[in-house]
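Posting this for the archive.
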Amino acid sequence: MLSFNQSSHQSSTAPIYKPIRQPRGPPANPGAVNFLRGVQSPPSSSACLCIGGWGGDMTGAGNRVHTSSGSFAGSLDALTITDTSTFRPNSMVLQERGGIPRRGIQPEHFLPGHSEYLGDTRSKSYKAQVNHLADHLNCSLYLTDVPLTITFDKLFDVIDCGTVVAIDIKKPAGIYTLKAADVIFTRPESAAAFLAKIEKGIFIDGQRLSARYNKFGQPLNTTDQTRVLFIDGPDEMMQWNRWFAYFDRYCVWQASKFNTIYRKNGRAMFEIEFVRIVGQAQTIKQAIEKDTKLRELIVVGFCPDPCDATN
């Protein structure tokens, strides 16, 4: 086990880097969307992660299959990240540890591109919902006619209108044969711009999307946080499988892409595009910052959301 109090690992704190990224949209070259001060990350380092399964290539991530919160197999090596954080795991993880099933969640739901996130009714984001919020104030869209082959990365890849708070993909229900999705932005202008693009015609896997404002609206969100995290640390600690297990301790998470930005001078930087800010990116950042040993070695922060073309 890798202990964080070993003197050999007491390296100086790395500077905080701001990834400079190409705006997201339907990319001409899907492998060329991640940049750090002009240095391109390898196309093979990107993949779509979903709870219960992989939605993309696992190149660079070992043979691990993410089967459920709190479990992992096929680790790259025997080193593990010691848990010294005082941060409390979110309610989904605590329910799973206690053997309490989350309402409505069934094993068949855990497929690439499907989240069935039910939310925490005590959370600020849930309480921020406004029934029948005026369109010009609404940051939330409800997408329909979403293909069954949808994955988080496919949906994020057609968004270039602004920072995304969260995406929830829903399975077909009742008479409907296609999926649906909630897409929540930080600004109402972003929602309006994406709705206009959908009305002009956005296709995913040959299926034309439809959209309207969500009747459970979300007002302007002034947060400076994003769903995208960078984690910078000593090279020997920066193995994807070990970080996946660390994430599992604190939240039930999904990510649309993960990237190795660099490995140099004994350090490495990872970038993870979670599918929501609250409960995923925010939770992991707080857990690391409250870990008395880990924060001596690791630098963590938010990156600009590539879905915002102004970045």
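Helices lie at 91-97, 124-127, 152-156, 188-201, 240-250, 277-289. Residues 1-80, 100-118 have pLDDT under 50 and may be disordered.
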